[in-house]
């Protein structure tokens, strides 16, 4: 079923929307959650919660890209669950490495204006991504949005793991400089 | 901002980018392919229009400059790179292609860079390439101790004396269609192993094709495809030269060190540079322009295959990158450490010839002169299974009355391959699947595949008999052996094998040992009336070993013990652990 029809089912409050969505996007959302949680049980719960959140969000929301919309819900749910679960201990899987890498982009200090700047910050990062080649952008998004492992990214794009690592490293450096030049003191 | 907050913020990225990373452009090759196709279509249209409007004719544009041959230029059409660019600026097909180095003929394998070569040992120290770092560990003591880290990325490592070589390939820029790759070579002095000192840094544009050591000379091969048409990322003719820097300083690449091979249809080159790891200086370099397909090399020679209208050509070079000659061949079969083996076709009588070339690229012998080989017998093929698994039979040579089969590359999943110098016996895939017709051509047949070659006559010589429940009987005529194969968690495994003699009359009963959890026994399969084995029944037999000269060792179970039985006695084995538990004299004739 096409995405716009699925969205319409949500808007029509047709309960078949959930099983249809699950059938189409379960694998996609499961992969996202599992990258973050590395737990089958947690992943299943997280994905099931995704359908519920989607039900509550539509209406009023009418996503243009249903996959990304659902993926974002899953990502948020999974990350919150990860934070709750791993409070006080170090988790396994890819995410700790991803977070560690992101630390290279930040100073670690809180800013008073931080909340005000978040929207602008996201916009700036999107602009940064727009300037990249699609190849590099995909590598970046796979790592820092999907939390894919370096080896998975390498396999997906037929690159060497070392090349992926190097590309990510340079992208982080470029992002930090890019944001810094625009006044974002992370 | 904490890192967790940044991760959450990244969740708000443009949804288009999020989808793009999962949906579109799954691989770069596809992108290039389709981009190239689109560009080609545009180019063809523009060219057609240009010609229709009475544009210049090709001969005037592309004819070589007579009398100018500053190089060991091997092209009969283009004397200089400029000639080539002039022609290709209007004629080139857009697109790039990386040239892969051969992995089959590495002269000094232990010192040759392979994908997996990310660890080298120097005295008591190990250097391990790990992403963007090279970790240094001290091996003495009970446990390796990490002592230091080099902040340098390396895909591969090499060691020449006390010179540690880091080789890295990275994307350094370029457009969407033509990402610009570069290879970097870092030379470190590790005479003080814990504190390596960087001596030299070389960066050469192009995808890393190969890098290997011969003595103290490091050879780096990169390949680059640079479009000369309007889509090119390059503006200046000079940009089409290889780009090499040493410690940030550009190393000039003069015209004398260029070589045009054949009649290239695009600007594509292999740039070879040789660096003395002791002095850190470049000792030789040469760039080979042409439609190269593959590079073969050893410490003593380098060969490039180039596609031509009449078939592939092989251009050969010495260890110092000096042009040594061109070979006309029909098919390049492969290369070994000591020689290249080439297949040529005699156009007059259609007879295949297999040639062997030694290290100096001289033809040394005619492996198959007038042999009229079946096409299936001489080939270099890659067999694919699904998307992931494949194996490659790199070359098969025919020498007088015997075939030489060499499998040089093997990437297997749940498959098995056995081979020797005379016989490639079989390759299997999921044996749970039923066998269908013609399973003997290496084609996928319901999940099971077999390839069976023999020396003479060439062709099918083996039999594979399905016995049901994941069990197969494989019979090989050379040597006369049978094997019982069973599906296990680890794939298809041989659980029993024996050497047989073919009885007079030609019909052969297959027998194999079985163990049903309590007893050892023998099962036999007998051919049916037509001599086939496909549907033959399986029956339990009481096994008898008789005769004064019986040599076949058989295992039997008597009571709780298992015995290896021969004509001379029996060794007792524990029925559970199969370890020797004693021995006894047994009658010559034993019936169970």
Please explain how this structure is put together.
The complex is a heterodimer of chains A (186) and B (592). Chain A has helices at 3-11, 17-37, 40-57, 66-85, 95-103, 114-130, 134-144, 150-157, 161-181. Chain A is mainly alpha-helical and 186 residues long. The longest helix of chain A is centred in the first third of the chain and has 21 residues, at 17-37. Chain A is globular and about 50 Å long. Chain A starts with a helix and ends in a 5-residue tail after the last helix. By secondary structure, chain B is mostly beta strands. Helix content of chain B is 10%, strand content 43%. Chain B contains 5 helices and 42 strands. In chain B, a hairpin with a 2-residue loop joins strand 26 (389-399) and strand 27 (402-411). The longest helix of chain B is centred in the first third of the chain and has 25 residues, at 28-52. The termini of chain B are far apart. The interface between A and B is large, with 57 and 44 residues.
Structural class of chain A: mainly alpha
Could you spell the SSE succession of chain A in H and E letters?
Answer: HHHHHHHHH
Show the largest interface: A-B, 57 and 44 residues
Question: How much of the polypeptide of chain B forms β-strand, as a percent range?
Answer: 35-45%
Biggest sheet strand line-up of chain B: 6-7-8-9-12-13
Helical percent range of chain A? over 70%
Q: From the structure provided, what is the oligomeric state, counting identical versus distinct chains?
A: heterodimer
**How far from one another are the termini of chain A?**
43 Å
| Classification by helices and strands of chain B | mainly beta
Number of strands of chain B: 42
Shape of chain A: globular
Residue runs with pLDDT of under 50 for 5 or more positions of chain A: none
Range of helix content of chain B: under 10%
């Amino acid at each position: 079923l096409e995405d716009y029809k699925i969205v319409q089912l949500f808007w029509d409050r047709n309960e078949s929307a959930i099983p249809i969505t699950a059938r189409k996007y379960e694998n996609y959302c499961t992969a996202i959650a599992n990258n973050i949680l590395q737990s089958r049980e947690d992943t299943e719960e997280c994905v099931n919660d995704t359908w519920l959140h989607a039900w509550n969000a539509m209406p009023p929301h009418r996503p243009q890209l249903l996959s990304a919309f659902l993926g974002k819900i899953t990502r948020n749910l999974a990350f919150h669950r990860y934070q709750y679960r791993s409070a006080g201990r170090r988790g396994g899987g890819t995410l700790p490495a991803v977070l560690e890498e992101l630390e290279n982009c930040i100073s670690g200090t809180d800013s008073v204006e931080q909340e005000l700047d978040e929207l602008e910050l996201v916009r700036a990062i999107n602009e940064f991504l727009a300037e990249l080649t699609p190849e590099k952008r995909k590598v970046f998004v796979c790592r820092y949005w999907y939390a894919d492992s370096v080896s998975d990214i390498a396999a997906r794009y037929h690159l060497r793991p070392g090349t992926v690592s190097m590309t990510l490293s340079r992208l982080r450096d470029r992002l930090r400089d890019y944001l810094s030049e625009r006044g974002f003191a992370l | 901002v904490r890192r967790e907050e940044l991760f959450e913020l990244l969740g708000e990225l443009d949804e288009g980018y999020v989808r793009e990373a999962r949906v579109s452009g799954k691989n770069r090759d596809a992108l290039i392919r389709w981009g190239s196709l689109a560009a080609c279509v545009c180019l063809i249209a523009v060219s057609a229009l240009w010609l229709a409007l009475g544009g210049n004719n090709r001969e005037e544009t592309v004819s070589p400059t007579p009398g100018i041959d500053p190089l060991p230029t091997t092209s009969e059409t283009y004397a200089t790179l400029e000639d080539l660019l002039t022609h290709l600026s209007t004629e080139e097909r857009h697109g790039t292609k990386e040239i892969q180095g051969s992995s089959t003929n590495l002269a000094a394998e232990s010192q040759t860079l392979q994908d997996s070569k990310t660890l080298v040992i120097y005295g008591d120290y190990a250097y391990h390439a790990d992403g963007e770092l090279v970790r240094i560990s001290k091996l003495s003591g009970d446990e390796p101790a990490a002592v230091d880290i080099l902040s340098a990325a390396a895909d591969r490592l090499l060691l020449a004396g006390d010179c540690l070589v880091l080789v890295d390939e990275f994307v350094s820029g370029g457009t969407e269609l033509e990402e610009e790759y570069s290879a970097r070579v870092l030379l470190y002095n590790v005479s003080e192993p814990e504190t390596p000192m960087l001596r030299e840094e070389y960066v050469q544009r192009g995808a890393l094709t190969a890098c290997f050591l011969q003595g103290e000379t490091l050879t780096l091969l990169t390949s680059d495809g640079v479009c000369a048409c309007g889509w090119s990322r390059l503006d200046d003719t000079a940009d089409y030269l290889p780009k090499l820097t040493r410690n940030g300083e550009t190393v000039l690449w003069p015209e004398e060190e260029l070589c045009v091979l054949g009649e290239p249809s695009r600007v594509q080159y292999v740039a070879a540079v040789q660096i003395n790891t002791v002095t850190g200086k470049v000792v030789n370099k040469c760039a080979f322009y042409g439609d190269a397909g593959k590079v073969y090399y050893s410490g003593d020679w380098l060969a490039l295959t180039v596609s031509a209208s009449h078939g592939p050509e092989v251009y050969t070079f010495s260890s110092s990158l000096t042009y040594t000659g061109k070979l006309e061949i029909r098919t390049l079969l492969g290369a070994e450490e000591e020689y290249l083996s080439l297949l040529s076709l005699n156009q007059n009588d259609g007879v295949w010839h297999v040639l062997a070339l030694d290290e100096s690229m001289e033809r040394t012998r005619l492996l198959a002169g007038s042999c009229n080989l079946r096409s299936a017998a001489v080939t270099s093929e890659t067999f694919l299974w699904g998307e992931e698994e494949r194996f490659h039979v790199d070359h098969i040579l025919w020498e007088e009355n015997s075939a030489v089969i060499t499998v040089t590359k093997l990437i297997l999943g749940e498959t098995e391959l056995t081979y020797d110098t005379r016989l490639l016996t079989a390759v299997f895939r999921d044996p749970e699947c039923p066998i269908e017709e013609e399973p003997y051509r290496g084609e996928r047949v319901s999940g099971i595949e077999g390839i069976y070659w023999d020396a003479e006559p060439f062709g099918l010589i083996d039999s594979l008999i399905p016995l049901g429940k994941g069990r197969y009987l494989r019979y090989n005529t050379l040597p006369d052996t049978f094997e019982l194969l069973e599906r296990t968690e680890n794939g298809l495994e041989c659980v029993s094998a024996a050497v047989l003699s073919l009885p007079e009359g030609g019909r052969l009963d297959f027998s194999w040992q079985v163990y049903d959890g309590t007893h050892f026994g023998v099962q036999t399969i007998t051919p049916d009336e037509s001599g086939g084995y496909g549907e033959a029944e399986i029956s339990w037999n009481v096994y008898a070993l008789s005769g004064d000269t019986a040599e076949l060792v058989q295992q039997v179970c008597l009571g709780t013990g298992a015995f290896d039985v021969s004509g001379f006695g029996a060794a007792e084995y524990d029925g559970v652990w199969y370890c020797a538990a004693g021995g006894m004299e047994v009658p010559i004739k034993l019936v169970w």
